[in-house]
Amino acid sequence: MATVTTPRRAPGGAGVMPDTPGWARWANDHRKWLFAAPAMAFVAALIVIPLGWTAWLSLTDAEGSVRAESEFVGFRNYLDVLSDTDRFWPAVGRTAAFTVVALLFEVVLGMAVALLLWRPFKGQKWVRVAILMPLVATPVAVGMMWRLIFDPNIGLANQVLGWVGIGPQPWLAGQHSALPTTIFIDVWQWTPMVVLILLAGLTSLSEEPQEAARIDGASSWQRFRHVTLPLVMPTVIVAILLRGIDALKTFDILYATKGRGGGSFHEVETLNVYAYGLSFDYNEYGVSSTVLILFFLIIIGSMWALTARRKEAKR
Amino acid sequence: MKASPAYRVFRVVALVVVVLSLVTPLLWMIAASFKTNVDIYDTGKALVFSPTLDNYATVLKQSHYVSFIGNSLWVAFAATVLSLILGVPAAYSMSRFNMKKSALVVLMARVIPGVSLLVPWYYVFSNLQLVGGFTVLILSHMFVSLPLIVYIMMGFFDGLPEELEEAALVDGLTHIGAFRRITLPLSVPGIATAGILSFIFSWNNFMFALVLSGADTKTLPVAIFDFVGYASIDWGGLMAAATVVTLPIMVIALFVQKYVVSGLTAGATKG
């Protein structure tokens, strides 16, 4: 262990022996960037430059083959996309609806389950295992699993409804019920994520404010509303941030349950599904890049708004 | 303080409901994978049926599924190891030298929609004749793994006292030597957490393989779609294929639960 009498760095670097070879000295002095540079180079080559390229493509009429010539068309794609009330704006609406509704359920249910698990009890370990399972399950497989359960004819869901006297529902097959059903699947798979994050937040809270409120005679709802919730709010916002980013980008379960284009009526076509279809089903690279850049701006905008909220909550 | 009896009853009931609603669908999938298609269609045989391994035989024999298992393992393993090699030292530098801007750039990768990179990647890699090969697939999965690993390891290094390294410097080690001989061995739990999560996310990844894999390099999440036809679905085969993808990862998660949870919640309660 270090002691208080640790000598400060001598010039040339503490610990560098006189017989240290030159290259090792150099490496030692430049370790900051020696360590960080390979990862940064990877990020620059595979993420920053491609993203810049996407931005460039969005200003061209690139389509068809990746070897085809393309021409600069300025902001024409942006005007086309932003005035497209047929596919683009409905996709924006679905993305927003999917994200907001899924997040709402996930945070409320997640908080409820986290509070149930907060105080230790016998068998808690097994409940935690159950919570972990949907989280680590492969999303595509989860989509297929729910496809069977929600099958209008042979699925478990309609069978269970039958027991309580409710008629069969179309679920994923219905034009209006498909999006809510995919939201349900997202809530099933990702509420556990919110539970784990909130549980980590709750566990890190100190006991004293709770104790004080109890002595003052606060009811359990009052304690939650006025003591626990404000204290855990920063963690709630982290959960919303992390889940929100992924919910906006949901692709796997939508593609697994409804296939290309979000179904025959584009029932579940969100921005991500729309951009994917434009790129790889129709090879409309220019237009798809435009949609992607707009999508990216939407994500950054919502993140920025949430982070601002978080700073407020921490105050 | 003891909870009231009424609350304790309520809590038990609520927890049973939670556990059942999370686990039943998964068990239903696994059960269906052991049913014949006739039994799957017969709602009367929901719970009582004579199990069969036919679906697994179909999956393993007909569709090169075994080699797809190998592909998934190889891609997830390679992407994880390479990301650890790049990511752990980078996270160390970013944590010790407080490189906030560089960290932000790496973490932006968690925010960017994957499709927006797939288009330029597809342009470059198809011109290089690399689409369909493992190289591109592994690189694309590193896009998911690297930021995840940097994020988890930065949090880990932030919590590792610097005094230990300073003591090693006094004992004559160089900074890099101290990192190698003191910090790295102490970081094994963090590296395990980051590695396991990276493996799971890569194994589960679907979109990159959908575009970038070829017939020989297909990973399991893409191969599942072989059981979905235009006209009809082979439900038994589909559920067996889904189980083959999902069950191993769930079993692994069961054994390394602690690491998975700490990785998923990394950084959630600080900053």
Topology, element by element:
The complex is a heterodimer of chains A (315) and B (271).
Chain A: H1 22-29, H2 31-57, H3 76-82, H4 88-118, H5 124-136, H6 139-149, H7 156-163, H8 178-203, H9 208-215, H10 220-248, H11 252-258, H12 271-280, H13 285-314
Helix pairs in contact in A: 2-13, 4-8, 4-10, 5-8, 6-11, 8-10, 8-11, 9-10, 10-13, 12-13
Chain B: H1 5-33, H2 37-41, H3 54-62, H4 65-96, H5 100-108, H6 114-127, H7 134-158, H8 163-170, H9 175-186, H10 188-204, H11 207-212, H12 220-223, H13 235-255, H14 257-264
Helix pairs in contact in B: 1-13, 3-13, 4-7, 4-10, 5-7, 7-10, 8-9, 10-14
Q: What name is given to the CATH topology of the largest domain in chain A?
A: MetI-like fold
CATH level-two architecture of the largest domain in chain A: Orthogonal Bundle
- What oligomeric state do the depicted chains represent? heterodimer
Average of per-residue pLDDT values of chain B = 89
Quickly count the helices of chain A: 13
Using a beta-carbon cutoff below 8 angstroms, give the protein chain pair with the largest interface and the number of residues from each chain: A-B, 105 and 104 residues
The CATH topology annotation of chain B reads as: MetI-like fold
Number of strands of chain B: 0
CATH class of chain B: Mainly Alpha
CATH H-tier superfamily of the largest domain in chain A: MetI-like
Q: Give helix and strand order of chain B, one letter per element, not per position.
A: HHHHHHHHHHHHHH
Protein name (chain A): Carbohydrate ABC transporter membrane protein 1, CUT1 family
Domain ABC transmembrane type-1 (chain A): 92-306
GO cellular component, one term (chain A): plasma membrane
Transmembrane segments (chain A): 33-56, 96-117, 129-149, 187-206, 227-245, 285-306
